[in-house]
Amino acid sequence: MEVKNKVVIVTGAGSGIGKATATHFAKHGAKVVVSDINLESAQKVVDEIVTNFGEALPIKANVAIYKEVENLVQHTVANFGKLDVIVNNAGIGPHLLRTHESTLRDWDRVISVNQTGVFYCMKVALNQFLEQGYGNIVNIASLAGLKASPNNISYSASKFAVVGMTKSAAMEYATKNIRINAVCPGYTESALLNQLINAKPEMDAILKSVIPMKRYGKADEIADAVVWLASDNTKFITGQTITLDGGTSL
Questions:
Q1: Model pTM greater than 0.90?
Q2: Which of 7, 20, 26, 179 could serve as 219's disulfide partner, Cβ 3.0–4.6 Å?
Q3: Tens digit of pLDDT for each residue in 96-132?
Q4: Is 155 a catalytic residue?
Q5: What residue spans define the domains of the chain?
Q6: Which UniProt keywords apply (predicted)?
């Protein structure tokens, strides 16, 4: 993983896939900005990284607020002098309801973070990348952005949008030394999955029954793919969606 000394922002890095991604980058020698809406959670991840002789900085940011995204990137560049990679991981889950039962509040809440938040982060990071002459974006989409996901309309819409934004922007900046890719995790051990199973305990057996590997993914497994896409080992890869789902989409 050729990411040593790269400056990397990971949003939603206070837990789950974001935390695993931040610690993986640090393990491979990157300088990591651990961003989360919960500064206390971000600080705990930073403390863990520093304890293991890595370099990290916590920055609080709500990706649904454009000014906070601007501050995130500006603060990163002010501290480290550059930005090599941004991983747009921050996301929230919906209330599990059929489309006609879904509330306008739930729709706006999920779209503002999962879709608009990714757009904000891409827009601000791209301005920095164009000024530098290089950059790399890895978006965290989902299996729900590739196939039907019933009772999940806002989340599904947001993740399909992330896949579309990834591909469209990758074409726009392919000649600018800027790569943009996405990973699409399937059912992965995380707070979002716990939320689903806690709401409907019977879903545990149902979900595992449709996964050929008969298990959930692990956050570290997703993080490995993210770091790989952000590394210099993948210089000819852009506009791709890497699916990590234990065979669920087959």
A1: yes
A2: 20
A3: 899 999 999 999 999 999 999 999 999 999 999 999 9
A4: yes
A5: 7-188+218-244
A6: Oxidoreductase
